[in-house]
Amino acid sequence: MSFQDDVELAPAVSGRSKAVSTRHLSAGSLIVSCEALGTVLIPEEKGKRCDTCHRNPPQLQKCSGCASYFYCSATCQALQWQSHHKKICKRFNQYTASVNFQALAAHEKMDALLLSHLVAQLDSTADVGERVMDLLHGPVDPPALPIVYASRRVAGSLVRDLYSRFGNNNFVIHSHLTTLGHGIFPIASRLFNHSCLPNAAAKYILSPSSPPTMQVVALRDIPPGEEICLPYLDPALLQSRQQIFQLSYGFECRCNSCLFFDKVGPIPTPPADPAQKEDLVRQLIQFKITPYNGLALATSPDPFPSELLPVFHESFITSLAETFRNASHDGEYSTAMTSGAALLALYRLIYPPNYPQIGVHSPGRRWILPDARFLAGMHLLELAKTAWNSTVSEDNNASIETATQHLNEAKVVLGIFGSEGDADGPLVEISTLDTLLTVI
Ligand SMILES: C[S@@+](CC[C@H](N)C(=O)[O-])C[C@H]1O[C@@H](n2cnc3c(N)ncnc32)[C@H](O)[C@@H]1O
């Protein structure tokens, strides 16, 4: 099977099939564009974004029937009316107020709404069901979900079968790497397996009068015949990721990064003593690494220094990220620049080249909050901004050269990922900071 010329399916040792490139793909190139079969906004974005295109214009019109769906234009409203809303509008408020719906966990409510949209669509378009049923079933049978709309043409067993594909196939939709909804993108689900050192990433294009489109972009040059993988969750979840793969997707990841961590065994707990912790941070910054050697770490024949292993403990990464975030926010630039440099060194060890973002695949939603803890490309931009703030506040903890260096790297990494999501965002911030640094 071939998809848009650049990628085809090949048999995989485990997990049915894999997507491989059919030709050389350069970093930043668009591999595949995927239409959404169904999407739903997270509750925090409901009423702030159009329920069809998910853009956030200043004004939205409520559906006059249920007053619970919002649209940016008559076209978006008509599209959704035809697709599913005409089937659910009248029953929607009674359904969401029902005891069965209210008893669901937050992620199940999202699933129930997405499933309801899908079933209403399926009632009139049979191939909608076929496209989902072509996807692999998750590792466990999920419980039945109450849906807003039942039809004699869509059996309860089919509804459960469809839902059993959600957990290991659906995606988190994001703008500037912040979650805004969940969606079903069957082509991407059919194609892409996971790797903790992915060579591609998914982004979302929000355009008027159509549901969001997923674009899968090459993060580095990919030779013909190489498997193309996405990250299903944040690879920085170094201790918990294998358990999540087993429980949510039913596979064991055998990527080079996972093989490396298998080889080194349990990661020692980082020291609690502040002086020892500071020393570890210093060693991490001084550790001679080539830029972005996540791949080299995983394949290098040289043993990794055992005294540095605690830096791979999730608690160490979280605490370093918190220190950086708080210190850069509070203007404690010395602490911010040190923790930021250590975090950058760590990201280079963990992530593959040009990694822009947190995990994007939907089941991660059950485990990982979209708290932007681990953003590799975004971290470069944050470091550049912190260095700039430090310079203009004349505290001498950073220089214009440091800010420029980080900004130039951020430009490369986030430039490869390219524009996505809402109109503002990191590329606009890069351009603003670039102007400031040029005129100074
Ligand atoms: C979204 S699908 C990916 C496409 C899938 N290979 C197919 O043939 O339809 C997710 C499922 O693929 C399999 N899978 C994904 N990544 C894998 C990996 N790194 N190793 C083994 N199986 C994997 C698992 O069965 C997982 O539940």
TrEMBL record:
SUPFAM superfamilies to which the protein is assigned, alphabetical: SET domain
Keywords: Metal-binding, Zinc, Zinc-finger
SET domain segment(s): 5-233
GO MF assignments: zinc ion binding
Xref: InterPro entries: H3K4_H4K5_MeTrfase, SET_dom, SET_dom_sf, Znf_MYND
Segments passing through the bilayer: none
Signal sequence extent: none
Protein name: SET domain-containing protein
Originating species: Mycena maculata
